[in-house]
Design brief:
This protein has 10 helices and no strands. The chain is an all-alpha fold.
Length: 270
């Protein structure tokens, strides 16, 4: 199945915002950039969710900061791919550098793979926070948060496991209720800010993508061999139109029509 996901597959047109929302919702994390998943721990846990019991989670380091530690995570992931006979080469040297595009492409592939398994249905019995606490070497993965049973209200932004039994029960309940409203409001505002940032990032990326294509077309039309051809003139008529309210398509079509009429008249004379 993995081999069938080519570079022109729709999977590689999924935006960063959707990828991050998918990761955060599935694994109960709060990543804001795709490069924050460069350590390979997220990928390992995604495979743990899709294929229970295959990933040795005790070997996964969720607090990997150095390239050496990250490479160890990718070794675990590659072993899992080999066990499952997934023909996917992991470009570890690029991923551990934290380059956004390389990490985005790998996560796009991973989402496509996960969506293809079990009809894309998530295992509702899978507890990602608990798996990180019980399995991983370190539970300090950036941006992770706890389920309500494992969480003090003032610890929502870190990934450390909280032992609910520690301390007097009454005081624990009091701490949870005290300031709950303000904490909830702060979390909601943070989430809203993150969503807006992701939306802006996606819009900027899309803008740059299409601008790059228009610039390539412009350069091509300016090539001496073709710049005076009717098609090039028609395209430049659209590119250089200054009135945003009036479409230049009609004028461009007139150029092509006139050119066609001239050719027809020339053929008739011959």
């Amino acid at each position: 199945m993995a081999a069938s996901i080519g570079m022109m597959d729709a999977a590689y047109f999924v935006g960063r915002g959707e990828i991050l929302s998918w990761i955060n919702a599935t694994l109960h994390l709060n990543l804001s950039k795709v490069e924050e998943a460069a350590s390979g721990a997220v990928q390992c846990q995604m495979m743990d969710m899709i294929h229970p019991g295959v990933v040795p989670m005790h070997k996964v380091n969720f607090d990997a900061k150095t390239e050496y530690d990250m490479i160890q995570n990718y070794k675990v992931l590659q072993d899992v791919f080999n066990k499952l006979k997934i023909e996917k080469h992991i470009e570890v040297n690029k991923l551990v550098k934290g380059r956004p595009l390389d990490n985005l492409e790998f996560l796009q592939w991973l989402k496509r793979y996960c969506d293809s398994m079990n009809g894309g249905i998530i295992n509702e019995n899978y507890n990602p926070v608990e798996r990180r606490c019980k399995g991983g070497k370190d539970r300090n993965i950036k941006g992770s948060y706890k389920s309500s049973k494992l969480l003090h209200a003032n610890n929502t932004d870190n990934g450390m496991c909280v032992d609910e039994s520690s301390g007097p029960k009454g005081r624990h309940k009091s701490d949870m209720s005290s300031g709950a409203n303000s904490v909830g409001e702060i979390q909601a505002l943070r989430q809203e800010i993150m969503d807006l940032k992701l939306s802006v990032d996606d819009l900027e990326k899309e803008r740059d993508f299409y601008f790059g294509k228009l610039r390539d077309i412009e350069i091509l039309c300016q090539t001496p061999e073709v710049e005076d051809l009717p098609m090039s003139l028609a395209i430049k008529k659209i590119l250089y139109a200054v009135d945003a309210k009036v479409s230049a398509l009609g004028e461009a079509q007139e150029i092509l029509t006139k050119s066609g009429d001239d050719v027809a008249a020339s053929d008739a004379q011959d």
